[in-house]
Amino acid sequence: MAVRGNNSVMNFLNEVAEDYPAAISLAAGRPGNTLFDEIDAESLSRWLATFCGAAPLSSLLQYGRTAGLIHELIACQIANDDGVPARADRIVVTAGCQEALALCLPELCPEASDVLLVRNPCYIGITGAAAGASVALQPLDGNIPGLDAQIESAIAQLAASERRARAIYLVPDFDNPTGEVISLEQRHAILAVCARHHIVVLEDNPYGMFRYEGTPIPPMAALDDTGCVIYFSTYSKTIAPTVRVGAATLPEHLFGDRGASVALYKAIVERKSFVTVNTSQLCQAMVGGLLIERHSSLRSWLSPTLEIYRRNRDVMLMQLAESFPVGGMPVHWNQPEGGFFLCVDVPMRFDGDAVTECATRDGVIVLPMSFFAFDASQDHRIRLAFSAVEPDRIRAGVHGLSRFVARHVGANARRERSLAF
Amino acid sequence: MAVRGNNSVMNFLNEVAEDYPAAISLAAGRPGNTLFDEIDAESLSRWLATFCGAAPLSSLLQYGRTAGLIHELIACQIANDDGVPARADRIVVTAGCQEALALCLPELCPEASDVLLVRNPCYIGITGAAAGASVALQPLDGNIPGLDAQIESAIAQLAASERRARAIYLVPDFDNPTGEVISLEQRHAILAVCARHHIVVLEDNPYGMFRYEGTPIPPMAALDDTGCVIYFSTYSKTIAPTVRVGAATLPEHLFGDRGASVALYKAIVERKSFVTVNTSQLCQAMVGGLLIERHSSLRSWLSPTLEIYRRNRDVMLMQLAESFPVGGMPVHWNQPEGGFFLCVDVPMRFDGDAVTECATRDGVIVLPMSFFAFDASQDHRIRLAFSAVEPDRIRAGVHGLSRFVARHVGANARRERSLAF
Questions:
Q1: In the predicted model, what is the mean pLDDT of chain A?
Q2: Is B168 in the same domain as B150?
Q3: Residues A229-245: pLDDT tens digits?
Q4: CB A302 within 8 Å of CB A209
Q5: Does the beta-carbon distance from A64 to B242 stay under 8 Å?
Q6: Which of A89, B117, B285, B310 has the fewest CB atoms inside 10 Å of its own CB, making it the most exposed?
Q7: Contact A63 B30 (CB under 8 A)
Q8: Who among B62, B271, B283 is closest to A132 (CB)?
Q9: What is the mean pLDDT of residues B227-235?
Q10: Shortest Cα–Cα distance, A144 to chain B (Å)
């Protein structure tokens, strides 16, 4: 089952952005440039020096360990910042977290009857990776209350055609594209059903450290006592995308089986050796130097960025409230306590043509939720990203969106009136 | 068809190297550390500054163009150094050349009946990438004279089972593992047969710039007038493996079809977006800065390294001649005019056990050619790498090998004698 918006979503968006360079983009889910305020040639050199210590730089320049160089530092950072009890000897350092996902899928779903469960809507990086590895997807039925029940239902449905759910992809904290958080109760319930059916949970956590208020919920990997979670982490959002350093952390025992976990780890490492050989040791060392400087926690490093993202989110929420006042146009949105995105329900079908019209006439680029969806359920929703946009542009962008909506609601109303007469 | 030595060859070798740290390794096909003599924190910073020019470093830190940032510089360098007429808009910059191979194979061989032709023995990076993408391999029959005739024969053989050769992987200059060079005449003949049958030539050229004497032969991509060659290049051997920057360069017209080439390029780029998103822009910028400094040619940059590798090769050849004098043990080797390797025929089966014995008792680690082979034809050969080994250690290593051979030849002779009586 393929996402309806196909895999060229990003190309489409890039083209729209190129064609309408003056338009404000609320589409790109990337870090704000303020994240880079303390990164310059000097700091990069310093991190390298810190990491190397007494060793010469040349020791970083050769080919290196396939599973990576900074696995111990990553284990500490994940433990400190996310509360995940990571073992260094179960960490594969990858060329960005996307590679980690791309390496795991074919190992977990080697047979044609093996299926990856996903939510609907779903991050296009995982649908693309699954397509690349010819891994079949089964979206959960969002109409069934409770993710655990949705998983049970999908298992039963697959069994009818002799297929098996082998893994489920989840972004429990501030999901991309919805911004939603899975509750603690639901996390436990999902873990229980996955343990029972030997379904591996692929927990992708790029946004967990970006909580602006409320009580943090432990990652599923921290709650996992049966060994069913592979934890995916990245430094693209916390340091810079350019480092291309991410990691997959396997459980010590996979469903209670130590040997199975070691075998999976080795298979993933071997697969990596035939894709990227090893992750750039120069990039790893820069990340490693920063982790050493910060005592294996990025909390303090990130706090200025969090302030800015929180402000951006607040500006977006305030502008939404101003542009779409209660009792006016039927537009609704969620209010995530963190992350990069929120989602907005609009009173019209919002497709690729709408993106183009909105960019051309209203000067704002937004992302239709249908691009992430497997059916028509998301056709009236859009994703707005606030992480990398200045407040003035957020206000102007949301205002542009309100013009678009008003024009279409007006047109609909006129059409309805003309039908009535 | 899988290589007999399976895909864990490198793990096996790494384990041997760990278990016998005192043993001299003639197994690793990596650059010598002298390549890194002019790389330090200062030069890395300078290259970054050169590449950025007036632009701030922060412009490199974000996500970037999937197909890469330095494609124009790479096009110039390939044209200058290799004589390949590369178009920047057909270059995909990848996280090392291995990624480029891994991205191309599933695009060229999407069907179960599609086959990749390879030589026997064959570089394990391509057999591993093919296994990872579930692409079937067909080794050429080395007993047939002429690679073009071998290809014709393979095509006929595949046709009998309704399969089709879609691509062939070749390292025409100083092949890994054999060190052999494909003649100009054979290059033309291969291009003709591949053009006729629409077989894409995957020309991997990591060693072409490492010619120590003799007349260079143009890469197949420079001779290709029908658009059947995809050219693979890497900076792992010319700058440093740690940069993890390689590239695939597609022909302007694929078998005369411009649209087909553009479509293949786009498919490869899209696939990359779901594996590594984009190649580290920091790493690309360091490579780019060096290319700018050197006016898009690495010839002068490499000349000190070439001197050292030439010396190493000469030392290895001299020591082989000394350790295995004419009329003594029946040991033979080739004398490549460049590259990192040579191959040696030994008068005994040389397998994994022999590697361990040779490492333990004779203090040298060598690579059995059978690890790269699809049949028993390579069982009496080994690969020796000279690129990264100091002359004294080359001498001691080859001497160790001669002890191993002498012991086994002696044992064979004793066994024969005892059989005779």
A1: 94
A2: yes
A3: 999 999 999 999 999 99
A4: yes
A5: yes
A6: A89
A7: yes
A8: B271
A9: 98
A10: 30
The alpha-carbon gap from B92 to the nearest alpha carbon of chain A, in Å, equals 15
Q: Are residues B169 and B135 in the same domain?
A: yes
Q: Find out whether B75 and B91 touch, Cβ atoms under 8 Å.
A: yes
User: Is residue A41 within 8 Å of B49, Cβ to Cβ?
Assistant: yes
User: Residue B321 domain-assigned?
Assistant: yes
Domain that holds residue B405: 9-30+300-420
| Residue B287: C-alpha distances to residues B47, B52, B68, B110, B297 (Å) | 7, 12, 12, 33, 12
Pick the closest to residue A288 from A302, A273, A278, A298 (CA basis).
A298
Judge: B275–A99 Cβ closer than 8 Å, yes or no: yes
Gyration radius from chain A CA atoms? 22
Report the residue from B33, B60, B286 with minimal CB separation from A58. B33
CB pair distance less than 8 Å for B36 and A102: no
Distance between CA atoms of residues A24 and A2, nearest Å: 30
Segment B299-343, tens digit of pLDDT: 999 999 999 999 999 999 999 999 999 999 999 999 999 999 999
Rg (CA), chain B: 22
Domain count, chain B: 2
pLDDT tens digits along A20-79 = 889 999 998 899 988 999 999 999 999 999 999 999 999 899 999 999 999 999 999 999
How many residues are present in chain A? 421
Residues of B in contact with A36 (CB under 8 A): 58, 61
Of the partner residues B98, B236, B278, the one whose CB lies closest to the CB of residue A274: B98
CB pair distance less than 8 Å for A275 and B270 = no
Count of residues in chain B: 421
Q: What are the chain B neighbours of A116 within 8 Å (beta carbons)? A: none
CATH code where residue B292 lies: 3.40.640.10
Tell me how far apart the terminal alpha carbons of chain B are, to the nearest angstrom: 44
The Cα B15–Cα B28 span in angstroms is 13
Comparing alpha-carbon positions, the chain B residue that sits nearest to A42 is B45
Global pTM?
A: 0.95
